[in-house]
Design a protein that fits this description.
DNA mismatch repair protein PMS1; Heat Shock Protein 90; globular; 2 domains; binds adenosine-5'-diphosphate; 9 helices; Ribosomal Protein S5, domain 2; 8-stranded mixed β-sheet; binds magnesium ion
């Protein structure tokens, strides 16, 4: 009963970045080691996530985009022990309702791939054979075209939405170990250009160097702090005096057990401590909280971005002391 209750209906897809996030997480859940995000006109016309994961088996084609279809829950006794990103079975069905969804997929057991077209209710309406390596490509055309008001809003804000998407992809590309990320965009008739690219290295350090450059990396201080309740936080923050003047949030990434999340309170704390000594700058922040699965709840918001710690007060206090030490020590 509680499982059903927690998988409550809710809008998962709020904008371009949440749409893409769901697809990227599906690729990660499928064990992909290569994930490509292709955009047309910054995602306004269409966007596509191409992976080399396990693919989808033909007996799932019909139910794939139906509401609450998920292949991920059966393997877990309850939501607490869940380690996959997905489990609600809402992303593909929501995308059908909001745009036009097609899927190309092939498992290692199939010799050819299938091309699947779904309608707005998530029904499979067309299927034909196609050529593809093992893996899955999900394409969404004209996101929000079914909602006139939101569609206008979407077009008007497309560059902002695109910026948010790139920042989110950075978040995944930094933390993912052994997963190659590429994002490309094609505007109008101009050539496709690479927005972001990593090699799928095995470490946070190498990913940061690939994305932000060696010179940026040398301005970061590695962190590893023990927190109360068997928690640790690992990552990097700007050394004192080496932040950037950019807006906060631009290069600030927070994770819980490798899952990108919003942490406004932690973000605010780091900025305050850092800016105490560097009034005009914002630090680069990459922090992964490694916590026992019981200590937090990801099921609070449909997009799974908001995280609640059961012991938030003392976690913040520990962080304050540890970061305070770094920033006061390096500013003298
Ligand atoms: P959820 O991720 O919560 O299970 P989704 O609506 O995101 O729900 O996806 C529905 C199902 O489609 C997944 O459970 C999975 O079986 C399958 N699926 C979606 N994308 C992929 C992919 N890239 N590779 C393999 N299977 C996928
Ligand atoms: Mg999913």
């Amino acid at each position: 009963k509680s499982v059903v209750h927690k998988i409550c209906a809710g809008q998962v897809i709020l904008d371009l970045s949440s749409a893409t996030k769901e697809l990227v997480e599906n690729s990660l859940d499928a064990g992909a080691t290569s994930i490509e995000i292709a955009l047309k006109d910054y995602g306004e016309e269409w966007f596509q996530v191409i992976d080399n994961g396990c693919g989808i088996s033909p007996n799932n084609f019909k139910v794939l985009a139906l509401k609450h279809h998920t292949s991920k829950l059966a393997d877990f006794p309850d939501l607490q022990s869940l380690t996959t990103f997905g489990f609600r079975g809402e992303a593909l069905s929501s995308l059908c309702a909001l745009g036009r969804l097609t899927v190309e997929t092939r498992t290692k057991n199939e010799s050819v791939a299938a091309h699947l077209t779904f309608d707005n209710t998530g029904q499979l309406v067309a299927e034909h054979k196609t050529a593809r390596k093992v893996g899955t490509t999900v394409t969404v055309k004209k996101l929000f075209s079914n909602l006139p008001v939101r569609s206008k809003e979407f077009s008007r804000n497309i560059r902002k939405e695109y910026g948010k998407l790139v920042s989110l992809l950075n978040a995944y590309a930094i933390i993912a170990k052994g997963v190659r990320f590429v994002c490309t965009n094609m505007s109008g008739k101009s050539a496709r250009s690479v927005v972001l690219k990593t090699q799928g290295s095995g470490s946070l350090k190498d990913n940061i160097i690939t994305l932000f450059g060696m010179s940026t990396f040398t301005c970061l201080e590695p962190l590893s702090i023990s927190l109360p309740g068997n928690c640790t936080v690992e990552g990097f923050v700007s050394k004192s005096g080496y932040g950037s003047g950019r807006n906060m949030g631009d290069r600030q990434f927070f994770y819980v057990n490798g899952r990108p999340v919003d942490m406004p309170k932690v973000g605010k704390l780091v900025n305050e401590l850092y800016r105490g000594a560097n009034s005009r700058q914002y630090p680069i922040v990459v922090l992964n909280f490694i916590v026992p699965i019981m200590a937090y709840d990801v099921n609070v918001t449909p997009d799974k971005r908001k995280i609640f710690f059961s012991d938030e007060g003392s976690i913040l206090q520990f962080l304050r002391e540890a970061l305070g030490m770094i920033y006061s020590a390096s500013s003298v």
